[in-house]
């Protein structure tokens, strides 16, 4: 434990009582590290929380039994703030979140500790806290989505519904479609197709009779992608509904622009939706593409 510098502080707190050297039985942070260890210091540790639904979470845990910030002396407070700052920077660099939530409760565990939660405008809880209830899944008729030409493409016998939500709610409908189109038809590997962005992206699904007809996603960096339409429902305009729903969602979430990688033969399709090509041609999965962006 660092010696007190003796500098006069606004709060003059006496040095910390030495915490017991032996772990206290029944104390979760004495008995367990509390995550994947990233940094060990005599007085604190930084651990990563590997959660597939929410990447980029970490904890800074004071190693000794101190329940309140006001129990630390000045040097310890400075040390702790430095640790919090470095953890914040580490998460920003690694995960590029839109926001980092920092929470400290400690009602049950007598170790001062701080939860770091990386947040994206596209994560399932945004803008509420990650322990709040996620909004329930809302389906709407395609013709109710505000797309004037919607009913031209789908007959009355196909009461297709559209929903925009998170991966937790839509993965059962979206995954089989993407597997069929990208993994089976286009030979993309399963690992590449279902990447770590799914859990922090917004997804759209068009479905009828509880089966997905089309899907797509808006990734946290504003990229629209993973547009997949079931083989026997192509050329009905579903792709346009999917992209427009994601454009509406991006605007609702405050994105200033979005982009996609469009296959060269489909550039006209994206231009009609308002996208402009802003790169040279490049190969992706051996198919020529251009980057196309849309500024709201
Ligand atoms: Zn303990």
Verbal overview:
This protein is α+β, with helices and mostly antiparallel strands and 296 residues long. It folds into two domains: 28-119, HIT-like (HIT family, subunit A, 2-Layer Sandwich); 140-295, Gcn5-related N-acetyltransferase (GNAT) (Aminopeptidase), CATH 3.40.630. The chain is 25% helix and 26% strand. Strands 1-2-3-5-4 form a five-stranded antiparallel sheet, with helices on one face. The chain has a five-stranded antiparallel sheet with strand order 6-7-8-9-10, with helices on both faces. The protein starts with 27 loop residues before the first helix and ends with a strand. Mean pLDDT is 87; it is low at 1-15 and 144-157. The chain binds zinc ion.
Number of separate domains? 2
CA radius of gyration: 25 Å
Q: From N to C, what is the helix and strand string? A: HEEEHEEEHEHHEEEHEHEEE
Structural class: alpha+beta
Chain-averaged pLDDT: 87
Count of DSSP H/I helices? 7
Low-confidence stretches: 1-15, 144-157
CATH class of the largest domain: Alpha Beta
CATH topology of the largest domain, anyone? Answer: Aminopeptidase
CATH superfamily grouping of the largest domain = Gcn5-related N-acetyltransferase (GNAT)
- Main sheet record: 5 strands, antiparallel
Q: Helicity level, as a percent range?
A: 25-40%
| Beta-strand proportion | 25-35%
């Amino acid at each position: 434990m660092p010696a007190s510098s003796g500098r006069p502080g606004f709060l003059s707190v006496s040095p910390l009582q030495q915490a017991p050297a032996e772990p206290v039985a029944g104390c979760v942070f004495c008995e367990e590290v509390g995550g994947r260890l990233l940094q060990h210091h005599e007085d604190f540790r930084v651990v990563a929380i590997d959660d597939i639904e929410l990447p980029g979470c970490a904890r800074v845990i004071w190693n000794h039994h101190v329940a309140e910030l006001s129990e630390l002396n000045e040097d310890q407070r400075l040390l702790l703030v430095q640790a919090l700052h470095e953890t914040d920077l580490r998460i920003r660099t690694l995960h590029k979140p839109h926001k980092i939530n920092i929470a400290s409760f400690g009602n049950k565990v007598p170790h001062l500790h701080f939860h770091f939660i990386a947040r994206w405008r596209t994560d399932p809880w945004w803008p509420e806290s990650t322990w709040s209830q996620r909004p329930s899944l809302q389906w709407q008729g395609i013709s109710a989505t505000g797309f004037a030409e919607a009913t031209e493409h789908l007959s009355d016998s196909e009461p297709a519904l559209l929903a925009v939500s998170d991966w937790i709610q839509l993965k059962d409908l979206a995954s089989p479609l993407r597997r069929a189109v990208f993994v089976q038809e286009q030979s993309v590997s399963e690992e590449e197709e279902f990447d770590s962005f799914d859990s922090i992206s917004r997804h759209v699904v068009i479905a009828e009779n509880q089966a997905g007809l089309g899907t797509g996603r808006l990734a946290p960096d504003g990229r629209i992608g993973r547009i997949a339409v079931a083989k026997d429902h192509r050329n009905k305009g579903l792709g346009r509904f999917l992209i427009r729903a994601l454009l509406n969602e991006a605007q609702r979430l405050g994105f200033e622009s979005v982009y996609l990688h469009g296959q060269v033969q489909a550039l006209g399709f994206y231009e009609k939706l308002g996208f402009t090509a802003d790169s040279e041609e490049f190969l992706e999965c051996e198919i020529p593409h251009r980057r196309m962006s849309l500024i709201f």
